[in-house]
Amino acid sequence: MPTTTQATRESILDAAEQLFAEKGFEATSLRHITTAACVNLAAVNYHFGSKSELLQTMLQRLIAPVKIQEVEALEALLDHTPQPTLEEILGAFILPLVNYLYSDDPRVRIRAQVFARAIVDPNEEIQRIILAEVQSINASYSAILGRVLPTLPEAELQWRFISLFGICITHVVGVLSRLVPDHLRTTTKELEYQRILTFMIAGFQAPPPEKF
To answer: Where in the chain is the domain with CATH 1.10.10.60?
Structure first.
């Protein structure tokens, strides 16, 4: 059972997530957060020190579960076969993310919305935090993808890998599905996974564009 101190910390993080998802980062003040969490400003300062530290902790908390699973999935894949296929590598990256976003935890959708906001936010501090969190996973997957696709220029591989990440987030959060007619929106976790995987395999295998 969490202590009162731990419960207060989690309550502040939960309130921040909800407000950041609804209002965005710049429009959310510490007063908004303390009111929603039913705590005073001293509690925020005690646990996080500042809005900046609170933001960093919140983003780390929402990224960590998927990041850990994606690292473990890649390690397990490489232990099983030193020369994995493109489909196996992409599957190791996509499946943990889709599983997480389709979990029964009601806060997952809020956290996905927060992250979707964060990756397009022009705030340099937010981009620095996200870069620090995803850099290692990016490097690990890019290295093995580069071995499977040796003729694909590094810059092109990076562009496609980041596009893969964006597609997973925007589809599952529902950013793009709003453009689809209601009667065509039926999907499941398994179908979402297969659609993203099939689409990205074709994308990674496509020849690089000609230089303009």
So the answer is: 1-49
pLDDT over 70, % of the chain: 91
Residue tagged 């599983």 (tokens):
99
Instruction: State the residue for tokens 């580069």.
Output: 146
Q: How many CB atoms lie within 10 A of CB 50?
A: 11
- Tell me the DSSP string of 79-105: HH-SS--HHHHHHHHHHHHHHHHTSS-
CATH class of 57-205: mainly alpha
Q: How far apart are CA 98 and CA 145, in angstroms?
A: 20
Let me know if 30 is exposed, middle or buried by CB neighbors in 10 A (0-12, 13-18, 19+).
middle
pLDDT in tens, 64-122: 888 999 999 999 999 999 899 999 999 999 999 888 878 888 888 788 888 878 887 88
Q: Say if residues 14 and 107 touch (Cβ distance below 8 Å).
A: yes
For CATH 1.10.357.10, the residue range(s) in the chain are 57-205
CB contact set of 26 (below 8 Å; sequence gap of 6+): 123
Across 30-34, average pLDDT: 94
Q: How is domain 1-49 classified at the CATH fold level? A: Arc Repressor Mutant, subunit A (1.10.10)
Which one, of 175, 154, 163, 170, lies nearest residue 202 by Cα? 163
> pLDDT-derived band of residue 189, with 50, 70 and 90 as boundaries?
confident
